[in-house]
Each structure stands twice: as C-alpha cells, then as structure tokens.
Amino acid sequence: MEASRLQKEGKTLKETVQWLDKYKTYLRSWFTVDDLKHLIHGGRVSKAQAAIGELLSIKPILNVDKKGQLQNVDKVHGRKKALQRMVKETITGVDLSIVNHFYVAYSGDRKAVDKVIQQLKQYYPKTPITYYPLGPTISSHTGYGCIAVFSMGS
Questions:
Q1: Is residue 145 part of a domain?
Q2: What pLDDT is stored for residue 127 in this prediction?
Q3: Which residues form the signal peptide (predicted)?
Q4: Number of compact structural domains in the chain
Q5: What is the CATH number of the domain that holds 80?
C-alpha cells in the first residue's frame, strides 16, 4: 500500500525501494482466526489442540515478527477478547510518524472489521483506516473470520 502511495507521490522506483527497505522492519501485523480447523491443515495446531480450543472458544493472537516468522503470541477466550487484544497490541508501540494509517484485512466477517475499526477510532479518531478482503491464498489457510491489523511502529 505504501509503495503505491509513494509512486502516486511521484517517487522513483529506486526511492520507493529505498523507503521500503528502510522501514520494512517497522511493519507490525496482528491477527486472529475464528476457526482453528484451518490451522490444523497448516500444521500450526494439532487436532487435539484444535478440539480443546474450539470447545473452550480459545482464539489465538498471532503476529509476524521482524524476520517474517509467524508467532503465536497469546490465546484468549472468545472472539470479542481476541479483537480487543489485537487492537491493544496494535496501538502499543505504533508510530504514526512513519505511516499515518491503519490497514485491516479480513476473510468474510465484516461485522468484526467494523468492531476493530470502531475500537481503533477510539484511540486514533483522525487516523485513516483502510480495510480490504484477504486474498484466496491466505484465506484458505486461515478460514472465514480471520482479521488482521497492520501498522508501523517499534
């Protein structure tokens, strides 16, 4: 998204690549899934873990670290708490001087997107938020109800 913005501002390809290289480690991504069965297929959880997790309505809080590795940060009970925790993690350490924008990606659950946007707006009412559907490749690994929030920060 930022590469597109830089191009529209008239930056050269070289300038855009330099900006992306400089700030790539500042990208912060937090996400959760609503259904654990897709994580079984990806090898992220075992069938037993998923069965117990579904029974107890446990939702994982995941992020991608600076090395690009998927990390299971925490587990919370219920969808509402998962969305709240994602927003909390997003606003902790956010640096809007790098990119004054939030991005929310989702697979199917627009009501959850609206809740996340509403929560972000409580903390940053003037910061633009763009939302868009996840592509089919990611959605096939996460299932219906995946929500991801992207920002820049430490």
A1: yes
A2: 94
A3: none
A4: 1
A5: 3.30.1180.10
Closest CA to 85 of 52, 114, 62: 62
Q: Decide if 72 is inside a domain.
A: yes
Residue 60 domain boundaries: 26-152
138, part of any domain: yes
Q: Is residue 99 pLDDT above 90, yes or no?
A: no
Write down the mean pLDDT value for the chain: 90
Q: Which two tokens stand for residue 4?
A: 């597109």
Q: How far apart are CA 108 and CA 116, in angstroms?
A: 14
Please report whether residue 8 resides in a domain.
Answer: no
| End-to-end alpha carbon distance in the chain | 19
For 135, phi then psi, to 5°, come to -75, 170
In DSSP notation, 3-58 reads: HHHHHHTT--HHHHHHHHHHHGGGEEEEEE-S-THHHHHTTSS-HHHHHHHHHTTE
- Select the more confidently predicted residue: 35 or 103: 103
- For the stretch 121-135, what's the b/e string if a residue is b when 16 or more beta carbons lie within 10 angstroms of its beta carbon? eeebeeeebebeebe
